[in-house]
Design a protein that fits this description.
Blueprint: E1 4-9, H1 31-39, E2 46-50, H2 52-57, E3 65-67, H3 75-85, E4 90-95, H4 103-112, E5 119-123, E6 130-137, H5 141-150, H6 156-161, E7 166-168, H7 182-187
Parallel strand pairs: 1-2, 1-4, 2-3, 5-7
Antiparallel strand pairs: 4-6, 5-6
The protein binds guanosine-5'-triphosphate.
Guanosine-5'-triphosphate is lined by residues 9-16, 21-22, 49, 51, 68, 73-75, 77-78, 95-97, 133, 180.
Length: 190
């Protein structure tokens, strides 16, 4: 079995929130740190997937990070850069903007993992489509992703729909809620 690395997707522009979503505090520490703690039991190492600006801000920190290596603004940049960093690892990917996430969901994904498929992900809240930004991506997904990005296909959901993946029912679909703007954040009971 290939080693499983963690990847916190933190490199988005957070335009709607107006501040870096990965640094918002919901559980006593910045979300990117909180998620690192949650992922650690499943992974040999956990990296933050960051853009160039964030990476420069972290210059004096020893935080493990992978800087976006491609000229696109998309979560796929982060995942592809991770495969470029280590093509033989599998990557347990978690978006930084799911503050309700707990180990319950991560456990369900880890237990539902199918090594013969390219990825193991949950159905999204409609129970129909795959939720791409929380999942385990096997090494076989790397070349597929590379090709897709080369062709300008940047929709992670579409990419999953076109490939052989393992879909798992989320134990608590609420945990997959994205919080993208201050209004949604204010409504959260955390
Ligand atoms: N590494 C990396 N992560 C990204 C990139 N774009 C989005 N993400 C991450 O993917 C997840 C979902 O991001 P979105 O909500 O689609 O985009 P966003 O840039 O964070 O927010 P908006 O600017 O408001 O759309 C978050 O965890 C982001 O940090 C990117 O270009 N690089």
């Amino acid at each position: 079995m290939s080693k499983l690395n963690g990847l916190i997707l933190a490199g988005g522009r957070s335009t709607r929130m107006g501040q870096d979503k990965s640094q918002l505090v919901y559980h006593g520490k910045p979300q990117r740190e909180h998620l690192t703690d949650l992922l650690r039991p499943y992974c040999s190492v956990v990296f933050w997937s960051v853009n160039a600006i964030q990476s420069a801000e972290l210059l004096n920190s020893n935080q493990l990070r992978i800087v976006d290596a491609f000229d696109i603004t998309s979560p796929l940049n982060g995942i592809l850069s991770a495969f470029q960093y280590d093509a033989e690892a599998a990557w347990f990917v978690v978006a930084c903007d799911m503050p309700l996430l707990t180990g319950q969901s991560l456990d369900a994904l880890a237990k539902g993992r199918n090594l013969a498929k390219m990825a193991t992900v949950f159905y999204d809240s409609d129970g129909q489509l795959p939720e791409p930004l929380l999942g385990i991506y096997e090494p076989a997904f790397g070349p597929i992703l590379h090709q897709a990005v080369k062709e300008g296909a940047y929709s992670p959901r579409q990419l999953l729909q076109q490939n052989d993946i393992q879909l798992v029912a989320a134990p608590n679909i609420r945990e997959l809620t994205n919080i993208n703007d201050p209004v949604a954040r204010a409504k959260l009971d955390l």
